[in-house]
Model the fold of this input.
Amino acid sequence: MNSEITSQTQPDENTGQAVREWLTRFEPQVPLILIPVFEAYDDTLDCLKSLFEHTPAEVPILLIDDGSTDPRISQYFEPLSFKDRFAYLRKTTNKGFVDSVNLGFGLAAGDVVIINSDVVVPPRWLERLRAAAYSGSTVATATPLTNHGGIISVPYRNQPTGELPDGFSLETIDQKIEESSLKLYPPLPAAVGHCTYFKRMALDLLDGFDPVFAPGYGEEVDFSQRAILLGLTNVLADDLFVYHKGSRSFNNQAARQRLRDEHDAIIEKRYPWYLASVGEAMGDTDAPLGLALDRARAAILGYKIAIDVTCLDATHNGTQQATLELVRALAQAKAQRQDDRTSLTLITRDNAAGACPPDIARLVNEVITVTELKKRPQPAFDLFHRPFQVYALEDLELLQQTSARFVITQLDSLAYTVPAYAPDPDWWDKVRRFTRLAFGTADGLIFISEEARREAARQGLEVTPDRSCVTYVGVEPRPEPLPAQPSAEMERLTGKPFLLMLGANFRHKNRLFGLRLFTKLLESYNWEGNLVLAGPDKAKGGSAAAETEELKQNPRLADRVIDLGPVSENEKQWLLENAALLIYPSIVEGFGMVPFEAAWVNTPALTGRISALGEVLGEGVIYLESFEPGEAADVTWQLLTDPKLARQQIAAIRAQAKKFSWEKVGEKTWEFYRQILGKAPHLSKTINRQLAQYTHLENEHHKLQVWSAELNQQLVAQGQKRLAPRLKKWLTRK
Done:
């Protein structure tokens, strides 16, 4: 210690020598645990009880009594002094926290941990606090998370509270935080004084606390700023939580506030940047500190996750069914984590009452509309998942503005790559721009096959391994199979075999090839069955005109090809159950569920080994190895006439189906959420937020200039010529 920063209290020679000799019993690399205490007998007992229970026996614990008037303190602790690892040192005069700490700094030869007497520590606390302190060679101090610690308070950020959340013990909170922590050890503007690890290197350089801050308040800020000026850092032990009861030593609130104001003034004069750095730390959600605090909050209270189900309406399609199944899977995955407080909210379209089935709504915490979401304080959610593509700017804005992070599921790239599927060229251009923007700003991207992910990357869309995931989709049969219900038109199919092609007549579905395959089947094998087409006609990108022309050129197909148009789910079930073979020659599939649906009702399916179909169906099935109609007809004939081969095809598809369950999808999606929540928000969000803040400041500055000019004119008009230029100069400065 130098002559400027030292303890005003010196222990008597015998006591000081006794403490030093006692400390020689311990290894020099072991830190000294120092508890300055004034009164607060019960709190001190709680503190020491936790320290004795959770601190290794080879670590010394020194209690310095700052002249407490409560006789119980000396009566209880003095007889225990210098026995094993505990020592008690009493000051005859109360000179404050700063003086007690400096006294301890002077007695210790190594690192020192200062713990307030109203702090309770959990198991393995010192191990983790020391790891943070030694996470870098230039770290001066390390401070753990707590409930009452200013900017490092959790679970309520920047809201210190003297109590733990209802239903939680210190040990439970600490365990949850440790398990979820990324061990970022983020830098702090200053150490927080409830519990701080001081490295000897920093103490040797800085000499301890400045007595000007006696009896207490602001001393750790001053120490931290002096450390920063030397190039050292103060870090947060973001994997450790201690319970802090909060400012028990200051009973006179008025005196405390006066002391605080005086010391704040000293800090502001010495370190004019400090308050701004604290303000930035309090509001920054993107820096390591914000991420660490967010993880700790969520470990206790759970994350708030929203699922976009605005695709739901009175109709029914594959995207809607997959969305509903995903919600079920996520709810099941959440239920298996019984202590996980994460909430799930579904976002529906406005004026879509009843679109969300009641059985789905019961699985989640709440269902709200887009309008209701917009009325909430933003960001309303930690993560917002849209399980289908973005087609409009307003969809992307909703995701960005209402959540800290958002995830998009890209089912396939057809809308991006095929201009004919767009209503007009301008719409297609917008979809491509919105897709690029969505990929460039999303925090996470989910694909339903590796092929879908590769195709997005081939198209030049931003796909990075650390922010993308393949979850696939579930293909297991429904728990309660749909009743098969044929339409009146389907009744005429009874008693005669038929090939089935399911799906809208988009060109990539390749129905024209199906007609040609069927023609070759009739020509080469004189098959007696029919070809049934089931699916809606698409005005944009559909193959209706080409199919009509093909039928004209082959008159014999006229009464052998039956186009049913769109069918209901019950009608689709009947078709799958009664078809001799499902022909599925689609050229592009993000996944390809229909072959699995056929296999579950014992109908074989034949597809090309193309896009995601080869990936999800695997190597055990027979494929259309080419799109030459004659060769395809030969393979079709084999499956139609060889029952054993057909059963093998069904069995192979069913075996592959075991890899794709909604339970696995839910688990994988949940883990991906956690992965994304463990990262800082996408850089684009930070940039956009900073640009918005800068724009706001620029706008305010402009308003100030206009106002000052008007005021200046009024002052000049009133004859205040000397004041006006000075006022203008002051008001218009940045």
